[in-house]
Amino acid sequence: MKLIAETAWHHQGDFEFMKDLIFKISNETQADVVKMHITIDFDEYMDKSHLAYDLLKPWVFTKEQWGALIEIVRKSNKELMLLANDTEAVMFASSFKPEYMEIHSVCLNDLFLLKKMKEVLTPETKMILGVGGTDLYEIEYAMNYLEHANTILMFGFQNYPTIYKNVNFKKMRKIMDLYPCLEFGYADHTVWNSPHNELVTLLGAANGMDYIEKHVSTLYGEERVDWAAAISIDMFNSLAKNLKLLEELNGDGKLEMNEGELKYSVFGPMKKAAILIRDVKKDEIFSEDMIKFTRTQSISDMSQIDIINSFGKKLQTDMREGEVLMHSSFL
Questions:
Q1: The overall pTM is greater than 0.85
Q2: In the CATH scheme, what is the code of domain 259-329?
């Protein structure tokens, strides 16, 4: 499971603030991936009629500034995720060969973005599709258009205050069942000061997610863009620690018993073993009226099912009441 540190528009056009934020995420957090939203052609991204147009347009960074921010991430051991909001941003972002490219859910079926993304994607690049607030038809269209084997579906959307029933883990699990070969992520947007912030994120992760995404701020609680879901560096690192614990608890998923289970499953001291309730003679036919199942200090190499399957076999040797039956007890 990988932890993604999201920055979005939290910089509000302040390049020095963003540099400091990216540096601290890259060097002081347990994040696996650093995520940035890149917008180059703002007029493609947003029409002048939009209420946020005049606010956001002055916040757009230059290519040189984005390059400097990306260089900070590349100097660390973090992976890079770039979300492109316009077609020029797709071309620019792809030139840095990020491990992850993303289309936001608000752009999921923007045909021009999809075309450009399909043009630049390499087989190694992981393609993240934001699917919060989208229906199955929208998800299916984007996936079918891109035909990219290395695809991740990212659940989660921003709504403040967080309405827990709208998170809808049951729906996520149903969608995950439809695409068993894909990877999945959960972008949690629980309100910054909720006492359940970390718990909700961990519960989301426990649904089988491969990626967890959280907004991160160096000005925890200060009213900036995306501040309502942004946690502090310390909170982020606490979450990372507990996600590692969760990952340990999840294990490897193999159906074979692991070392701990094998130790617990020993027949005799732990699981009940079969012992004789009377003396028996060599060549007697083994039957259930000869035994009982009980916990004993003696270890048997036969499971309870092995014993049941041995009814009707001949005994190999004379045995005394109270002896534990072994595979070597039978012909």
A1: yes
A2: 3.90.1210.10
